[in-house]
Amino acid sequence: MENLINKIENELNSLSKEEREEILKKLRDGIDDIDKQLVKLLVKRTLHSVLIGRVKQSMNLATYNPKREKEISQRISSLTEEPLTKEALLRIYERILDESRAIQREELDKGKIFKISGKKIKKGFNKLLSKKEFFIVAFFFLIILGVLYSTFFTPNYYKSTSPIKVELKLGETLSELSNDLYSKGIIPSKTNFKIAAFIYGAEKKIKAARYSIPNGLSYLDLLDYFMKGKGDLLKLVTIIPGSTLEYVASTLQHDTFIDSAEVLSLSRNRFFLDSLGINSPSMLGYILPRHYFIYERSSVDEALRILYSGFHKFMSDSLKQRAKKNGYTIPQIITVASIVEGETNKKSEMPIIAGVYYNRLKQGMKLQADPTIEFAKKGKWGRLNFNDLQIKSPYNTYKHSGLPPGPINNPDKAAILAALFPNKNNYLYFVANGNGGHHFSTNFQEHLQNANKYRKWLDTLKK
Predict the structure, then answer these.
(1) Residue 353 lies in a domain
(2) Are residue 101 and residue 9 in the same domain, yes or no?
(3) Which residues contact 133 (CB under 8 A, 6 or more apart)?
(4) At the N or C end, where does the chain have fewer CB atoms within 10 A?
């Protein structure tokens, strides 16, 4: 019944017509069974009412007793449960009481017209079965109990070397899991496993993880293994826009227990980068910000390949062709995108800012991008001063012309698309406007005026 309720409450609109008709039939069959029980109980109640009428008659008491009926109404009201309201229940009982009084009056007028025996009110258990029949039932019950115990509680042994690795993916069904377990010889019967899962209520409780299944687990022990997640769980790992490799490594260690130092080391390993086709100093810029599912304690190689898969799928052939058409390589596009990501969180401005940097590159100007200085400072974020602009680093775009050696963060899709499809404009400068956006200008004089407005705005914050 609970499964039917869940389907009606949560899945009704998605069910087919045949599935809804099947649910309707089951509910109607249930009502038929309930009606049988109600009739038996009403008959039993009426028999009691007839006997009460006879006792009243012998005591010369009236058939109608307002006080008693009021007590019944109060007691019945206290038993009300949704969806049946108190008023509805009282109306039903009012009709039952009317019929009970009518039957009592009929007996008063016509005499004892109903033959009542003790069997109609109560039939003892000892009358249901003879002693021989009782032992036969008990014997078969013990046999069934033994079969159930033997099937679901005794150990199942496989022939392979223990333990066997099983990977339960996110969204994998019980049938898919049973097929995998059966194909690896861990369980001798898929049907028995499914029955055990039904008895145990395990179908929606098993956890996605990588499991090392020891030998000799019963069906129920195996299900307990899956329900309690006795393996390396599948965890959600979130990479945010503009993140650094240090952030990625720290997130992996925190969420999946993968060593952060090993992550940083492999993400800069030339042989590993070549295997991914990354022509940059590191994986920085090639981990697309989004959600990833990674098993706890995965190898560093596997984890980084999963993180790279987001970028690999996003960077389609058409986008690669776009980069080529613009006259830039993919590493150069990602480098520009990372600078754009570092400049603004406002997606609508990203193509404009990308256009500014491309304009500077075409004119041979230095990029003079503050985010590259912040990157060169190696995590020492803060407002830049004159000394910061003197930092000796190939990422210092105030000193070195052209693009820096590689990306400075992991840019989001919006920044990458901005670098691929920049806004065509004549802007060469921009400065923050104090409202989360920027003022853009085509010449240095106008830029100085905008910068002066920004400094005045900063001064108002100090007051």
Answers:
(1) yes
(2) yes
(3) none
(4) C
